[in-house]
Amino acid sequence: MQIMKVDPRALKENPDRMRQSKSSPQADALMLATIKAVGIVQPPVVAPEMDGGNGYIIDAGHRRVRLAIAAGLEEIEILVADAANDNGAMRSMVENSVREALNPVDQWRGIERLVALGWTEEAIAVALALPVRQIRKLRLLATVLPAMLEQMALGDMPSEQQLRVIAAAGQVDQKEVWKAHKPKKGDTAPWWQIANALTKKRMYAKDASFGDDLAQAYGIEWVEDLFAPADQDGRYTTNVEGFLGAQHEWMTSNLPKKGGIVEVNSWGQPELPKKASQVYGKPSKSDHTAIYLDRDGKVQTVHYRMPEAAKPKDAGGHGPVTGDDDADAVAAPKARPDVTQKGLDMIGDYRTDALHDALGRAPIEDDMLMALMVLAFAGQNVRVDSGADGTFYGGKRFSRHAVGLFDEHGKLAFDRDTLRGAVRSVLIDVLSCRRGMSNSGMIARIAGEAIGADEFLPNMGSEDFLLCLSREALEASCAEASVQPRQKVRETRAALVEHFATEHFVHPSGRFAPPADELLDWIRAGATVDVIGTGSQDDEDGNVGASAEEHERPGEEEAGQDDLHDAEVADGHDQDFDQRAAA
Question: pLDDT digit string (tens) for 379-414?
């Protein structure tokens, strides 16, 4: 290399110069003022002509030479470099990239020039310290309409996603869309509108269930998406009809047993047969299978179950209907229940509060506490959805009671009083009579009766609760309280409110003791479940009725009909007792 002075007007411009985008007038004015003040700080790089001439061609510094001429300089210093094999293409690109980053359009033009001179994409990436994927992305600009490239060269660049959509479209489509959305002079292009107009539905190969044979039969050609992640299959096709047709043919050929193809609704959900219920867990052998295409064209599978065909029964539920006599029967008016739904809700709240008060203050033996703990965790609300107050959820509700049983070293160390307090607190969180998710059911009523929670129930002789009682229930309460019923329900209710203002009233339906038949049904239902795995009580002790026969006296064989009836009744009570004992 050598430095020499020449007339800037004698230098020739390189037609393959790297930076072809025009600079802004403000930048040119700033450089012109600098040249007039201090001259050119860094000499332009030139190379001798290769076709035998004695002139010099500018490799880098076209703008400096042009503004030096505008400044009226007679001579400028230049740096003469040896001519390169690629006519200085790589050297010019590197020099321009180091001085100021090239916009993507100029980068693409430089890459295309290097490729035309024999450079490979890998060699260009190594020389420019760019990934090969970036080189391939820039080469996609070769498919962009020249008019759009001119707009991009002005610095008005679309986003990467928008550029990907534009480059994937054909030249004819780009020309029509650009004609409709071409910006005015000095304005920026509405790239998002252009990209939306050129967007086409893509069906990806990774979502295809069919193979290459069906792809060829339906004329599907896969296109590589260079903007997709490198570790994913980015092939796609815009032949939507062919893709969906191949998917449908594959589904028809691969239908499972008890399977069928279903359509989807406007929300993309499968349209299952009427009365079918979708199976979300492991399907059984009797379940059906439905396959469908989602919005992305991917094959999806769901399982569903059809209800069993039920035979029509008569009004009593004893058999099929044989006549139309019941159709003409007049339906009897539905009687109002003694307590409304709101009243049952209030009873549930009353019971819960009284139960919690009893658990907190009533004298309870340790054995009873342990029994109540077993009963509590057999309740309906054993998730546990607590009916107690507080904002504790999940394990935090019970862990706050358990932490008091540990010492500072993290070991279990507690006294009897601390344990009793923890057990009472846990029972308060578990047992609930409130209606809804936190209802413990029969368990809470048994516990309340066992500890005498009826004594903690509030006075139900209020206007709010008595409004929930029917006329029959109000009149029954009047009979128990020796209050004369009135002609109007409102007056009867007012008389009860006045009477119970000084007395404590608890409606029979609000007490904790459960009905005997419901309790026995609950005991029998629990006794049928063999939890431990041992045999039934009948297998261990023999026939239940045999115990009663062993206690019969020989003389009873000659007893009369009345004595036999009494023996049968006693035997029935013994069986009920044995079932409760087994439970």
Answer: 666 566 667 766 666 556 667 777 777 788 887 677
**Could you give the maximum distance between any two Cα atoms of the chain, in Å?**
150
How far is the C-alpha of 392 from the C-alpha of 267, rounded, in Å? 38
Three-state SS annotation for 469-505: ECHHHHHHHHHHHCCCCCCCHHHHHHHHHHHCCCCCC
User: What is the chain's mean pLDDT, rounded?
Assistant: 76
Residue closest to 401 by CA, chosen among 380, 379, 376, 436? 376
Q: In whole angstroms, what is the distance from residue 496 CA to residue 492 CA?
A: 6
pLDDT band at 483 (very low <50, low <70, confident <90, very high): confident
Q: How would you class 373 by CB atoms within 10 Å of its CB: exposed for 0-12, middle for 13-18, buried for 19 or more?
A: middle
What average pLDDT score do residues 360-376 get?
76
* Measured distance CA(427)–CA(76) in Å, rounded: 98
Q: Which secondary-structure segment (H or E) carries 78?
A: strand 76-80
Q: Tokens for 284?
A: 């059984």
DSSP, residue by residue, 167-213:
HHS-HHHHHHHHHHHPPPTTSPP-HHHHHHHH----EEGGG--S-HH
Indicate the Cα dihedral angle 254, 260, 263, 264, nearest 10°.
-90
Beta-bridged to residue 259, according to DSSP, are: 289
**What element of type H or E holds 341?**
helix 341-361
Tokens coding 437: 């998710």
Name the band, by pLDDT with cuts 50, 70 and 90, for residue 564. Answer: very low
Distance CA 454, CA 440 (A): 17
SS3 for 241-303 is HHHHHHHHHHHHHCCCCCEEECCECCCCCECCCCCCEEECCCCCCCCEEEEEECCCCCEEEEE
| SS3 at position 6 | strand
Whether 79 and 45 have beta carbons less than 8 Å apart is answered as yes
Where b means 16+ CB within 10 Å and e means fewer, 59-71 reads bbbbbbbbbbeeb
Distance CA 213, CA 564 (A): 87
pTM: 0.34
Within 10 angstroms of residue 208's Cβ, the number of other Cβ atoms is 23
Question: Quick one: pLDDT band at residue 95, thresholds 50, 70, 90?
Answer: low
β-strand pairing of 259-261 with 288-293: parallel
Kindly write down the DSSP assignment for every residue of 393-435, as one continuous string. Answer: -TTHHHHHHHGGGB-TTSSB---HHHHHHHHHHHHHHH----S
Question: What does the DSSP 8-state code read for residue 76?
Answer: E
User: Which tens digits make up the pLDDT trace of 107-151?
Assistant: 777 777 778 777 888 887 877 777 887 777 777 777 788 888 888
Query: Which residues, including other chains, have CB under 8 Å from residue 388's CB and lie 6 or more apart?
Result: 356, 428, 429, 432
Q: How confident is the model at residue 157 (pLDDT cuts 50, 70, 90)?
A: confident
Quick one: pLDDT at residue 461?
87
Residue ranges of E strands in 287-384: 288-293, 299-305
pLDDT for res 551? 41
Closest CA to 421 of 352, 353, 360: 360
Core vs surface per residue 442-451: b (16+ CB within 10 A) or e: bbbbbbbbeb
Kindly list the distances between the CA atom of residue 382 and the CA atoms of 347, 521, 541, 552, in Å, as whole numbers in the listed order: 21, 20, 34, 45
